[in-house]
Structures are given as C-alpha cells and as structure tokens.
Amino acid sequence: MQLYLPKPIKRTKLRTFLGKQYYRSKRYFYWYFHSTSFAKELQTQKKLSFLVKNHQSMLLRPLMGVDMKLQEQKITNLKLAIDRMNGLIIKPNQTFSFWFLVGKPTKKRGFLEGLVLEKGKAAIGIGGGLCQLANLLHWILLHSPLQITERWRHSYDVFPDARRKVPFGSGATVAYNYIDLQFKNTTLQDFQLNFEINETHLKGELLTNIDLKENYEIKENKHFFRQEDWGGYSRHNELERILTDKETNQEIVREIIAQNHALLMYEPFISSQ
Asked: Residues 6 or more apart from 183 whose CB is under 8 A from it?
C-alpha cells in the first residue's frame, strides 16, 4: 500500500457551490428517470425472524473544540431520519438509498443544526450528524450478503480515536443528495432494517426471513500513519472480510473489501481524551 496523498486543493466558494448543484441535479435526474426499484415499504408492526447483525454507537461523545449543543441537536436529526427507514423491507432486486428515503434535511421539516465536516474541518449545517447513522448502517452491511453499490469514504480523519469500537475506515459519509449510501439485495430473500434511539445510544439491526448459512467477520490489516512529503500526515489501512460456514466453522472465502486513505487533521500519536 504505497499510495501517497497530495496536498488538499483549495477551491473557491463559487466552484464548490456550482459543483454541488451539478451533482445534485444529476442525482435528481437519476431518481426520476432510472428504472431502479428503490425499497420503500415500512413494516414496523412485525420483525423478520433471523438476526443478521446488530450494532450501537454512542450519541454524545466529547470532541475537542465542538459545542456539545450540536451533538444534542443531532439526536433530533437522527430521529427524523430513522422514522423514514425504521422497519424498511428490502426485497430481492430492490435497492436501498439513504437520501431517497430521508429526503432533504431542512428547517421546515424539523431538522436542526448539527456537526458537519467540510474540507476536513468541523462546521455547522442543517441536518448535521446524520453520518453517524450512515456509519452504523455501513458497518452492519459489511456483515451481510447485501451488495454495497455506493459508499463514499471519509477523505479526512478529523478527530483522534476515542473509544472507537470499529476499525478506521469502516464508516460511510453522506451529503444530500450526491454523496449517498446505497446497497442492493441480490439474494433471493427479504431483509429488514430496524433502528432505535435511547438515552445514550443509536442502535440498529438487520434481520432476514431465512437464516444465513455464513458468518461474516471484518478484520483490519496494514494500518499505519505516514507523514507526506508536503508536511501533512495521512492514515491508511485495508479491511478484509472473512466468510465461514456456520455449521462447520470452515472458512469459505477471504476478500479485501476496502482500502482506506485519509488526511489527518490532528497530530498523530497524541493521546485522545
């Protein structure tokens, strides 16, 4: 893994604005004119029978230089988002799209200001904090046979690890609507997403109507920090997925599912608080 990362390019506000409008227009065009079958059916009264994977993440985590109010308001944003996908049934050949379900986060719809990341720096934006939901969902998906068809990596590692439960690079970033998280059900069985927010955690689970025959394990390899020749630091790793047979515990296949490269916005090797 010898990829060297260039120094970030500083784009003007106008260039950034026009770029967003262009890619958002492309996404709208895709939604309205493509033949993709998007999952939309919510089944909240009855859960499917078999658990594939569950996970939880802390709602409030002190971050250096970040107002805790933004994290508290994030909870409102998360609740509004999971209301649009809680109990979602993904049938064979259907596609899940994060933004197709959640829609545009606006004040009119009740979304509040929260933490967003722009060019590697913490900023404030309406609907901020929804990446936590995308991160949790992507981690769950990695432990399933569902095919991830669109996932965007974080280009920057903004905060040092603080009680991190999953490997670096296992999350997914989202930004309405051109940076999406999508997956397709290429199997012959149904799957269901369920979410819950309690006082301390965001919880999610993936269920199915036919028990899987395989176990999924994610392993981190080749994790390291490096100083680039222009002075900045970068972080790298690769994620490997290992499938084993549930009955025999025999390994079926190993595959590299992601190679992650991100610029650090903090000095490496400092202790996290």
From this structure: 95, 96, 141, 146, 147, 148, 149
pLDDT in tens, 257-266: 998 988 887 7
**CB-CB contact of 91 with 101 (8 Å):** no
Residues ≥6 apart with Cβ < 8 Å to 33: none
**DSSP helix/strand/coil, 120:** coil
Comparing CA positions, the residue from 47, 65, 39, 206 lying closest to residue 139 is 206
- Give Cβ neighbours of residue 218 (< 8 Å, ≥ 6 apart): 139, 142, 143, 166, 167, 170, 239, 240, 241, 242, 257
Query: Residue 178's CB: how many other CB atoms inside 10 A?
Result: 18
Distance CA 58, CA 163 (A): 10
What does the alpha-carbon distance between residue 113 and residue 105 come to, in Å, rounded to a whole number?
10
What's this model's pTM, rounded to 2 decimal places?
0.90
| 20: three-class secondary structure by DSSP | helix
Phi, psi of 64 (to 5 degrees): -60, 125
By the 8 A CB rule, do 221 and 237 touch? Answer: yes
Q: How far is CA 252 from CA 216, 247, 255, in A?
A: 10, 12, 10
User: 3-class SS at 46?
Assistant: coil
β-bridge mates for residue 218, sequence order: 241
Q: Residue 43: pLDDT band by 50, 70, 90 thresholds?
A: very high
Nearest CA among 67, 4, 53 for reference residue 191: 53
pLDDT the model gives residue 162:
64
Q: Which of 142, 147, 150, 70 is nearest to 111 (CA)?
A: 70
